[in-house]
Amino acid sequence: ELGGSADFMSKEIHEQPTALSRALSGRLNERFATAHLGGINMDPRELRAIRRVKFLGCGSSYYAGQMGAQLVEELARIPADAEPASEFRYRNPVVEADTLYVALSQSGETLDTLAAAQELKRKGGQLLGVVNVVGSAIARECGSGIFLHAGPEVSVASTKALTNTATSLAMLALLLGRVRDLSTADGKRIVAGLRRLPDQVAEILAQEQAVAEVAARFADTRSMFFVGRVRGWPVAREGAQKLKEISYVHAEAYQASELKHGPLALIDNTMPTVIIVPDDELLSKNIGTIEEIKARNGAVIAVTNAELPEGLADAELRVPRNETELDPILFTIPLQLFAYHLAAKLGRDIDRPRNLAKSVTVE
Ligand code: BG6
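# 6-O-phosphono-beta-D-glucopyranose complex -> structure
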């Protein structure tokens, strides 16, 4: 089953270009510069009536939802957010008729997400599922939605499912945008960007050795920050989560913008920071954050597609350029490799991290 791979996590990381191609297959329409998502069963009039989008999921599926919310706001200009399904189900949520609720789950069996979906249905909410496992409880509860086509994911730490979830949500955002004010030119730009993703993910994976060397340099660290702004923020959260899950090294994700409002007090030469630095409108802000960290002797690992000033970061994990809206999908990949190789260096049992299960189907 493992083929030539050392473990399922490594196998699934390397399956991403193929898994992504499957998620995109038959779903991009060049002529109308939009996405074709047959399973959502909504006509343009119904899509236009949506006034808000809320994504619900747990763990990596929740972080993918945060990426999706950003995409929906950018491409469709509809207010959107993500919330852990585990919180939503217990807080007697206000369910609105013109909100589209989207349940996200690789397994389709996570109890918290299933319970959130059931609560929504009971209150008459409009619900879609974005699920990997066909025939799973959440897929059945939602009735319509998007299948991930990632193939079976065995490793507890999610990799290809998160990539396919974020990509599916980019297609949903594109569709919502194109029934509103997203221009044909911008739609075409996103369609072309989505088509480039599988090859670009392969390009990142080809640099695995370089990422492994950086990870090895930081393997004796006790604690790390992961920071990013706006599109980079869910990337930072997902990167920190991966590291915690499989290496047991403490990692805390923070908005780069909030660092100076508290956690900067913790930065010294024992506390490295991974920072997400896309070449976008926030580049100078992120360079400023790196300088603040360096001034306190903190080591900096930059995940970037920008040309940073020589020697600014102690290490760089390189990412190819695509449309800025799609950056989170690509920037997540080197952090999977980083967590994987740091955990491997520490001799952890990568496919069976302590205290965790692949899908949590109990209270
Ligand atoms: C957690 C797993 O319990 O469930 C995570 O450890 C996963 O890796 C999360 O992201 C959500 O799972 P699913 O199947 O609902 O996407």
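# post-check
The radius of gyration is 20 Å.
Residues 44 and 179 are 6 Å apart (CA to CA).
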